[in-house]
Amino acid sequence: MEVFYASDENYVRHAAASMVSLMDHNRKADTIHIHMLSMGITDESRNALEKLCTDYGRRFTIHELGDIKSWFGFDFDTKGFSTSAMARLLIARIVPEDIDRILYLDCDTVVTGSLEQLWATDLSDCYLGMVVEPTISKKRRA
Predict the structure, then answer these.
(1) Which of 24, 97, 99, 119 shows the smallest number of beta carbons within 10 Å?
(2) Nearest of 74, 110, 108, 111 to residue 89 by alpha carbon
(3) Are 25 and 55 in contact (CB under 8 A)?
C-alpha cells in the first residue's frame, strides 16, 4: 500500500496518530509505504515519523514542498483551512512513476480497521476515487 499524507509542522502530531492507527490496524498488509508531503516539517519531527514507521517495519519517505503557494500560478483561499490542505492537489506531480496506485489520507483521519478491501477496490477506468468530507459545513463547501 502506498499511502500519502500532507502536513506542516502544526499537524505533525495529528499525522503521527493517523499513521499509528493505519499501521496498527493493517499489520497483515504485505507492505505499507507512507509518503509525507511536507510544508516545513522540522528535522526532529521527520526523524520521529521515520522512527515510528521503522518501529512498525514500514517504509517512510518525505517529500518537501516548501512554500505551497509557490507551486500554484494563482492565488487561492483555503477558507480557514491550513494551506497544507492544497498539497493533495500536487500528488500527481510528486508521486514516483513506478507507483500506479495510492491512497491519500487526511492527517486527522483515524483508521479503525483494515484498509485491504478499500485498497483492492476496482476503480476500472477511473483515475480517482474519493469521498465527501462528512464533517464539513455547507458554508465551507460554498
Answers:
(1) 97
(2) 74
(3) no
